[in-house]
Write a structure and sequence with these properties.
2 domains; homotetramer; glyoxylate reductase (NADPH) activity (chains A, B, C, D); 3-hydroxybutyrate dehydrogenase activity (chains A, B, C, D); NAD (chains A, B, C, D); alpha/beta; Rossmann fold; 293 residues; 9 strands; 53% helix; nine-stranded mixed β-sheet; oxidoreductase (chains A, B, C, D)
Chain lengths: 293, 293, 293, 293
């Protein structure tokens, strides 16, 4: 099977590599073309432009950093729009909001192309291990045709219906994640403030109904006030904000998410935006020089 | 090994039964003595009063329903205080607050007795399966002597230091649980309000870093608006309140827990206090007859 | 002094009437031209289009219902842009967001025109009484030239600096208002729930440091669960959302405003969006059929 | 009219002085008797003990610092209980919780005495000016008999019904106050973070529907980050906590108050407990060394 792949950042590189290793014929493109070399050595073809990739391949997958980059590869000179046409499929796996994805869907469809949004849950490690969770939405036939590639990149893919549902599902999941991280941080600080051992709290949590990989993986580092970035706090805060905006449209009142969002904003204000989102723990902590009662 | 057991409610019955099955010589007592019969048939001795049980056994375990019951078996006529003395150990596994447990510790110690608080995490099913998590605090030697019984009743026991730490650890754990339940409810309702399939959300969550038994077990019922009581909402709200009060003493600011507590209060106000704590989902739900925009 | 006036809704009609009564020579325009007749009888000239008004008058004031209407009178055929030019001033008193106002400023300035945003604080009654508070920002000279008109329409005008500051100041004020309304509602419900007389609470508040016209005016109706619309709840919620978004840009964490916003969203979900924003009181109230404990 | 007065702190001294100036025959007592001298020079008699004051006077007013002091003057040797009897009235104007006041009511009534709780709203300045707001509850006849004294000490008194209602009304009022202070702080910080002039915000607020003495008096100092103590933040936080507990009993969900309470806790954790409650402003402020985005 032949696929194009646009965007070779941390995620895109790992994902396209897995495709190559699994026998896919892959044509890659990246804004900084030098990044294509490593993959070329491993057997990838290189496209000069997104348009060139689309011209060559029936299916083109994109994994870009943000909405702006996702739109650029479509609309810029040499962009996807110049070659997309009936018969071709475009699959955007970038994490972008529903309005960006809808815009791309519109213009791709207008040219007769087929479109699938397919944001993923999981970061660097799952990308390398082919263990991503893929939240696809849009053209159902395209979804079914591209499953072999999804099976290589992820451990599970979901088809969620109309375009926008993939982006929204990811927001819902990340919103729950952000609230849980705050709940966890409050528990850690309360344990400490009450004279309890925080590591014992982790042990107790690990045995009960709330046991989950996130607490287990991030807890020990948080106790050490270490927050190596897997998912930047500023992105988590952005997702909380977008999720709350989504709730706004649907008249869903979400006081826990709102409180968590304000905590992430406080953390951003403290200069922690580029740390891992678990750094929101610092917002909850009692200031060390506090003397108040 | 010979142990006394006070209190044969849902939890106490299951726990004492496990002790009998494992070869412990158990003397039981219950306020309603008729409840002792079933256990007597299985080999338990029956004590007429808590005092009689303590007189007979070196170790007496209690599993009562609330602080008031926990204090009654100590102070009432025929209560524990009449027979507790040097050499004897009293282990209270009821879920009570730190002040109740401290009071019991004080009077038991004043008589020369040894005291251990040992509240558990887990409800009916884990009690029956001997899979409780035991949060012990108080007399360390007594803890070590009673471990054979803990090993029968629980899958893991922790020794947490001074009396009060067991109760407080349980509050911290339940506080995290209550906040998580709210975060989860908000996610479920946002998914629904945004046109996403709630069961798919459960599937996505089950595959990611937040996967946990609580979401998996309660989620499907919550989607059906079914809340069979495993842990009553009014008890969850009480624990949230006590945890926030604990944070008050320690100057720990916990906005997520506070927001969750208010949601549980709202649920109580809606008449859901005796349902499972997952019924807080009803607070988040959009009223069905809503026409607002 | 001669001024144009675009938009004769509830606010615009009252404001232009005050200008006429004070001796201003006013040329009015309204999308539904029939609304101009009443003012024409009182001495106003009528313009066929916004462009016609701008052509005739050195100063044109606009009071439109929302950002979309504010943009239409600029960009549509027969719009302000066709006639705005050096020497002319355009003053938009509509309540719109900073990005709308910045866009208008940009295109008016590009044509050599001068621009002032001047949203107002106050609704129908203050408009009729010439008691509005005017939050002006943009061209300073234009501000000084138009002061005679502001003095007729308002009791006080402020010059706040660059375009956008007027819109943002209004958001800050409305955010405080929304939070206060929630605080007030919670107090009313707590009084009732605690067996206290709510009218007495109003009396006590009226005598103390928190005494304010809003509590005094809305309190008695709220106690009766009556919410005649002075400022629609859905607009209040929109302003809360925009204020929180403003805080997002500035890294200001605002948990009270966030909690208030969620309460307004809940009220919208209950179908109260078109009622007065004081209807958020209904969100706090204990359900009448509640049986929970 | 002859009255006893127990407690000559800042408030009690000002209040008893006003009684003397208005022609009341006052017998004072204070734990540190030396504080009585100044009032003795102005015509007061001095009692050796609370009991001596009660023996001498038909009406005894108390203004103590906290629940513990309020209970001490009742129960200690030489306390009120030794002389209270049918015909005598005891009026406690201290700010204490409903349970303390109920306890005092119980023992005073048991001796045949009459009891009125009468906490006040207002601090030093209103006490000096005889401008307190008096929230009385308990014996209605006693209330009517003591009105002449209330008229001297306060600008208005309310009779609120059964004992406990005075304490609870004060909690409701202070809860609204604490939430409003947080709303105000968020507005001030958002104004600053958005490039708006904070003093202009004060001016705008002063002209609108939210204008109130508290914003006017505390705002300018808050902008300067100055928080001279009129009402200590730790007492405000305690009142928020008690109000929320009151809501707990009544099943009233109060998310704004809960969020405000957590902000006050944060402020306490920052060492601001003895500053004015307006110091919660510091919790909202963006850290000055923040570099986050």
């Amino acid at each position: 099977m032949e696929v194009g792949f646009l965007g070779l950042g941390i995620m895109g590189k790992a994902m396209s590599l897995n495709l190559i290793k699994s026998g896919f014929k892959v044509t890659v493109w990246n804004r900084t073309l030098s990044k294509c070399e490593e993959l070329a050595k491993l057997g990838a073809s290189v496209g000069e432009t997104p348009a060139a990739v689309v011209e060559k391949c029936k299916y083109t997958i994109a994994m870009l950093s943000d909405p702006s980059a996702a739109l650029s590869v479509i609309f810029d000179k040499g962009g996807v729009l110049e070659q997309i046409c009936p018969g071709k499929g475009y699959i955007d796996m970038s994490t972008v909001d529903a309005s960006t994805t809808s815009k791309i869907n519109e213009v791709v469809s207008a040219k007769g192309g087929r479109f699938l949004e397919a944001p993923v849950s999981g970061s660097k490690k799952p990308a390398e291990d082919g263990q991503l969770i893929i939240l696809a939405a849009g053209d159902k036939e395209l979804y079914e045709e591209i499953i072999p590639a999804f099976d290589v990149m992820g451990k599970k893919s979901f088809y969620l219906g109309q375009v926008g549902n993939g982006a929204n599902m990811k927001l819902v999941v990340n919103m729950i994640m952000g609230s849980m991280m705050n709940a966890f941080s409050e528990g850690l600080v309360l344990a400490d403030g009450s004279g309890l051992n925080q590591n014992t709290l982790l042990d107790v949590l690990a045995l009960g109904g709330m046991a989950n990989p996130m607490f287990a993986q991030k807890g020990p580092a948080m106790i050490q006030r270490s927050y190596p970035t897997a998912f930047p706090l500023k992105h988590q805060q952005k997702d909380m904000r977008l999720a709350i905006a989504l709730g706004d449209q649907a008249n869903v009142s979400m006081p826990i998410a709102a409180a968590a969002n304000e905590a992430f904003k406080k953390a951003k204000g403290m200069g922690l935006g580029d740390h891992d989102f678990s750094a929101v723990h610092e917002v909850v902590k009692i200031p060390e020089n506090a003397s108040g009662k």
